[in-house]
Amino acid sequence: DLTSAKLTMALRSWTQTNGVTTLAGQGRHLDYGPFTFEAGLAKDGPRASLVLANPLPAASLKDVHLALSPEGDGFRIETKGDSRLGPFSGLLMLTAPKDAPVQIGIERFTVYQTEITGSVAIAKQGVTGSLALAGGGVKGTVDLAPDGAGQTLKAAISARDARFGGESPIAVGTADLTAEGRIEG
Question: How far is CA 82 from the centre of its chain?
Fold first, then answer.
């Protein structure tokens, strides 16, 4: 068992088959709630799956599955779950180039009927990148960049007969959102 100020975790099984060591268990994080995990180490690299039961109640995130596997020079991350806006699923690529920021490429991320694509770079100065939203009546962009004083965000999103699922479905006839902001650190 592992215990810290924010995390308790218990290992439930440990197996080794055909050169692959696999660990499985469960735990609870103070901020993200209960979870289960399975992690393995094979010749091609680490693999892991994590299921978070209710990691962000404010967004009604539930049953969030994350699966990580090695691919090329990085990791493939597959995700699915449920949220206030409806079910979501996605495929992301995480790479950590030598002498360059960590890169997250969003090959596909769908929330109900809206697709999000793009990429972000995560560095000491902040997050840089651009995301595009399309489908389900939603269209727009979100741009992120550090500016020396903090993290900036610029969004231009329009909704025309947009629909979202979830426990309480949401419909938006017409809306235009333009926002600029900074999170100072």
Answer: 12
122 within 8 A of 104, measured Cβ to Cβ: yes
Residue position matching structure tokens 């489908």: 135
**Residue-wise pLDDT tens digits, 32-57:** 999 999 999 888 889 999 999 999 88
Question: Which of 156, 128, 133, 157 lies closest to 144, judged by CA?
Answer: 128
Q: How far apart are CA 161 and CA 38, in angstroms?
A: 41
For the record, the structure tokens of 106 come out as 């969003």
User: How many Å separate Cα 122 from the centre of its chain?
Assistant: 14
- pTM of the complete model: 0.84
Residue with tokens 């992690």: 39
The answer to whether 149 and 184 are in contact (CB under 8 A) is: yes
Angle at 105 between CA 100 and CA 106, to 5 degrees: 160
Task: Determine the pLDDT at residue 98.
Answer: 87
